[in-house]
Task: inverse folding
């Protein structure tokens, strides 16, 4: 299991204690291939190959961590992307 896969597994278990920089690194790893993230104020918005949810919009909470509901959205988007890639290789 790679470092990225381990971090995703940790995020699944506890999305409430994910550092903002860790969430950005994962989003970059999986979604930067679809274009540079758009940054508007404190929001980092990533493009996905589908329209609609799950969207990827990350921002810090008051403690400097990523917001837990946004971490769950990133995980859902990673799952959807892996499912799409798996179906294309079949």
Result:
């Amino acid at each position: 299991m790679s470092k990225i896969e381990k971090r995703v597994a940790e995020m699944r278990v506890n999305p409430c204690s994910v550092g903002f920089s860790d969430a950005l690194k994962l989003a970059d790893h999986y979604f930067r291939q679809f274009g540079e993230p758009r940054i508007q104020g404190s929001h980092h918005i990533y493009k996905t190959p589908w329209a609609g949810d799950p969207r990827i919009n990350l921002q810090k909470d008051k403690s400097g961590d990523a917001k837990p509901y946004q971490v769950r959205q990133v995980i859902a988007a990673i799952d959807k992307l892996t499912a799409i890639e798996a179906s294309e290789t079949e």
Summary: Residues 55 and 73 are 7 Å apart (CA to CA). The longest helix spans residues 68-89. The chain has a mean pLDDT of 92. The two ends are 22 Å apart (CA to CA).
